[in-house]
Amino acid sequence: MTGYRILKLGIAAMVMAAFYASTHPAHADDTRRSVTMACNPFPPSKIDENISLPGYDVELLRAAFAVGNLALETPFYPWKRAYLLAEEGRVDGLCSCSYTVERERDMLYSTELGRVRIGFFPLPGISRKTSPALPMRAT
After folding, report:
1. CA separation for the pair 57, 34 (Å, rounded)
2. Which 8-state DSSP code applies to residue 18?
3. For residue 79, what pLDDT is reported?
4. How many CB atoms sit inside 10 A of residue 59's CB?
5. φ and ψ at residue 53, rounded to 5 degrees
6. Angle made by CA atoms 5, 55, 115, in degrees to the nearest 5
7. What radius of gyration do the chain's Cα atoms show?
8. What does the pLDDT read at residue 44?
């Protein structure tokens, strides 16, 4: 992750925290409100197996929301369930949701913070021309 992407993610998270704080009035007995963002496991940015190291996306979001005195809850779900919970309003948002035209009907987006790319690298001594392609499977 580049420093520029981290900076953009941090700025977007702070904007989201400020927007949330401005649209949800504080109550006298409510010193620290919380926001729930459903996450899907996507190491190393979102890691559900390790509470002390939840991944850099979650850590950055928590720090940004803390600036607005907001606690961030980040329960982990499979992607489709997380999206459904956000769509139904049962959570406040999603951790790191890529932009698509179809999703724009249901979600509000900040400016793009970065892109994830998938690549394959050959092992030394193996020619791409002579090796059959490995079957791909979704994870």
Report:
1. 17
2. H
3. 92
4. 15
5. -130, 80
6. 35
7. 18
8. 83
In the three-class reduction of DSSP (H, G, I as helix; E, B as strand; rest coil), residue 56 is classed as: helix
Supply the pTM of this predicted model.
Answer: 0.60
C-alpha closest to that of 21 among 92, 64, 70? 70
Element (H, E) at 72: strand 70-73
Question: Number of C-alpha atoms within 13 angstroms, CB side, residue 87?
Answer: 11
Tokens standing for residue 28: 């006298």
Q: How many CB atoms lie within 10 A of CB 128?
A: 8
- pLDDT score recorded for residue 10: 54
Beta-carbon neighbour count of residue 1 at 10 Å?
A: 12
Residue 90 identity (one-letter amino acid): R
- What are the backbone angles phi and psi of residue 61, rounded to the nearest 5°? -60, -45
Tokens 């992407």, located at residue: 5
Q: Give average pLDDT by consecutive 10-residue segment, the chain, 139 residues.
A: 54 59 54 87 85 87 88 93 93 86 84 69 69 53
| Contact (Cβ atoms closer than 8 angstroms) between residue 4 and residue 16 | no
Contacts of 84 (CB under 8 A, 6+ apart): none
